[in-house]
Design brief:
Blueprint (H helix, E strand, L loop, with lengths): L5 H13 L6 H8 L3 E11 L2 E11 L7 E7 L5 H17 L5 E7 L8 H17 L8 E5 L5 H14 L26 H13 L3 H7 L9 E5 L3 H11 L4 E7 L2 E4 L6 H11 L9 E2 L13 E4 L18 E3 L8 H9 L3 E3 L1 H4 L2 H15 L8 H19 L5 H7 L5 H27 L3 H19 L5
Parallel strand pairs: 3-4, 3-5, 6-7, 6-10, 10-11, 11-12
Antiparallel strand pairs: 1-2, 2-4, 7-8, 8-9
Helix pairs in contact: 1-3, 1-16, 3-16, 4-5, 6-8, 6-12, 6-15, 12-15, 15-16
Length: 467
Amino acid sequence: MSNYSFYQDVEYYVDQASKYTRFQKGILDQIRQCNSVYRMKFPIKMGNEVHVIEAYRVQHSHHRLPTKGGIRFSTAVNQDEVKALAALMTYKCAIVDVPFGGAKGGIKVSPSKTSPAMMEKITRRYTTELVKKNFIGPGLDVPAPDYGSGEREMAWILDTYSALKPGEVDGYGCVTGKPVNLYGIRGRTEATGRGVVYALNVACSYKKDMEALGLEVGLEGKTVAVQGLGNVGYHAARIIQEYGCKVVGIAEREGSIYCAEGFDVEKVYKFRQANGSLLEYPGSTVLKERNDILYMDVDILIPAALENQINKSNAKKVNAKIIAEAANGPITREGQDILLKKNILILPDIYANAGGVTVSYFEWLKNLSHVRFGRMKKRFEENTQLNYIEMVEDMTGKSVGAREKKAMIRGSNETDLVNSGLEDTMIEAYHAIKETQKRTKTDLRTAAFTLAITKVGVAYQGMGIFP
Ligand code: NAD
């Protein structure tokens, strides 16, 4: 399907973008490399049999510490993939100004075919291996969820780390994406999907770009197809409906469904949870092939499953006008060449799905500061708002009713602060990418990589490592 591996694609993007920077070759070579690659094999007893598990942790860049990146649980995990994903994390963090280097983990196991007890055993053993080699810690390397993992796995990682490193005052910051009642943060679970929607919202506010696509400005009324109803895809699809979009196509492993009037995503999600498949969802039409979701005639396509979905063999069949890469690497470089010739607007993964690491950063800050966001100012804000209202009442001689007052007075809580911090981050990052694009006159991915490489290179120079 592709002449290049995932990691080779990422290296290619870096090389293309490097041409628009002024760093000497040594700095660019350093930026490009994966700094540390840890491949491990460990035994796990399943029933009476012993199985050898293959796993990885790759730290791509140490220009900022800790390094940061999710852990993927999948039978397709391999070293090339983990290296590619770790590299993407470095550039992603740079774009959204999150002060981490990039990392990624992978465990070659199928979560759907492995019992929860066995998943726990594997996760805890993996964490122990990371501790043994100093590959985890709030100031060293901080994992998070990725494909096939979630809050449950993050809770096991925290518990194992805490048992092996008792009394570390900042130990809760050793992993993010934890359950809220275990030092996690509100809004992290849906952060990546929400970030995808914020990214699309700001992209659709650029009048000239929308005119070039023959689309109206704004998200309102746009049609959407989503591949993958997992963590990222489900939340992106659910939240984009709140902006007036119609989700007309949804794909999962078992196939793809279509509904011209638009789905209620929440209902489809619950239906699939209850029935194990979305194919019989009432009022929907099943598409002939699972991958037909990628060729639907929609305004926005959100691939939110895995890499290499759109490649040189199928890119010409894509009909969407905008593609938001919610997954990492869903379009190969050869696929991208074809899509760009078709004038399709691609929001690249290193920007579009950066919402997850942005809110992971907020969670890490919360863990280090040992206080919930909003806790110290919520009441203060409410009192200040009340003072304003009373002042206006005094000045006008008119009084505001108790019910109206209650509706007007609202101090910010953790969810408000997380979501507004995320929205602001996605908006600012997009404007910065567009500015870079204006200067370099390239596509959005090359502009995003140029911006990221510039920031990482400047950090290396600041460390005095290079002139
Ligand atoms: P997930 O495991 O929660 O969901 C992925 C879903 O895709 C699953 O439900 C799976 O059944 C489905 N799927 C797999 N192959 C498919 C196919 N061919 N067609 C349709 N559906 C298919 O994983 P996730 O956390 O949502 O991650 C999805 C992608 O987003 C990955 O590329 C991941 O690296 C990326 N990502 C995730 C996060 C995060 O915070 N979880 C952050 C940034 C990027």
